Amino acid sequence: MDVINEIMQYSALGELNKWFRYLVVLLFSTIVTILFVMMVLLIENGAYRNIQFGY
User: Fold this and answer.
1) How many domains does the chain have?
2) What phi, psi does 29 have (nearest 5°)?
3) What residue numbers bound the domain in which 31 lies?
4) What pLDDT digit, counting tens, does each position of 2-51 carry?
């Protein structure tokens, strides 16, 4: 936990309010978790789906 606090202290988040810093970290963690779950679902079900990338 000390490493995370030190990284946040010396980053751009260091000047922000404590609760706002944790909100930014929570938002980032949520986005990364959603992307990881989407990747796992794509790997598991990709062969059985007709996936088209484009507009």
Assistant:
1) 1
2) -65, -40
3) 3-47
4) 787 787 778 777 777 888 888 888 999 999 999 999 999 888 887 787 77
Q: How many CA atoms lie within 13 A of 27 on its CB side?
A: 6
Q: Per-residue DSSP letters for 1-55? A: -HHHHHHHHHSGGGGS-HHHHHHHHHHHHHHHHHHHHHHHHHHHHGGGS------
Nearest by Cα to 22 from 30, 37, 36, 34 = 30
- Residue pair 8/25 in contact (Cβ under 8 Å)? The answer is yes
Alpha-carbon distance 45 to 54, whole Å? Answer: 19
Show the tokens assigned to 16. 């922000």
Go through the chain and tell me how many residues it has.
55
pLDDT at position 40 is 93
